Give the backbone structure.
Amino acid sequence: MLPRGIWMNQQRAQGPTGVLLINTGSPSPPTPEAVRTYLGQFLMDDRIRPLPAPVWRAILEHIILPRRCPASAQKYAAIWGDKGSPLIAGCCELASQVETIIRSRGREGRSASATDVPLVRAAMTYGEPSVASVLKELKDAGCTQLIALPLYPQSAFATTAAALGALDRNLKQMAWQVPTISIEAYGDNEAYLDAVADSILQAGYRPQSDYLLLSLHAIPLPDIDAGDTYTEQVRRSSHAIAERLGAPSGAWSIAYQSPFEDGRRWTGPYTARVVTRLAKSDSRRLTVACPGFAVDCLETLYDIDRILRATYRDAQGNPANDLLYVPCLNASKSHAEVLAEIVLQAMNE
């Protein structure tokens, strides 16, 4: 079954399909200047900002960005790898893996014509490689159909809708009228759920002796009031994952991380508070997984694996009893196969 998607119904000419795996993005180098550029673009998005643009821009430029950028740059630098941003590098590698799998399946018996072998690229809603630059590449390559797959298993206004909004804006600016399939969410996809559950087990989770915390990104409560179904999607995915793992009732829960301090209320309970409470009141080892993040990034590598790990140790008072962090699916074979199958289903609809 194809994940929730939207057809922009237009007649398609012959030519390759361009596939965009869209994620949020990252600063280019981990410097205060680059972080300021990135956050300025990110936090001014209509789907993100909590106030009218002129008011919010003034608050950003004079209060939030001057305070936040130096500290954020240090955090990014702490997780920076040989290939740069873990998020960007991971998404690009994942896109390459997905394209390779689709090509190999074509050689195994499916037609391998130009229209059946897509060009798969990573694109970022904010920062580089931008949606605009990837669209230009795909247009120049002669693509006659697009598939947009935002890398958010559970869709939300602030993530999936923002990504698809960036796609739509850039297509209009390019005056490129191309048939486009937008896949909104895949959190109920059986293969995705299997892959997440397997990754948790492979990381060392012990269902009968560990406490499992599934941490997902918080979203503003006003979005829920406006009809965002994100928390219901989170609930379905999380219960399906816990069921696959055989996690006992009362030995796992859902929490929400990384709320932005902008005066709004956000979905909870907050991951940091839950981790502190569990460290003080529960003797079981804590396993933390982040099934809503497709690729490891600042929010997982720094906020969870560094800061919350230290919080857990300090609150528990026993450095030997460590927190187990489960890496995201990243560019793993299982993840690439999940996304490749979603793309193939979309191409064949």
In short: The longest helix spans residues 53-79. The two ends are 10 Å apart (CA to CA).
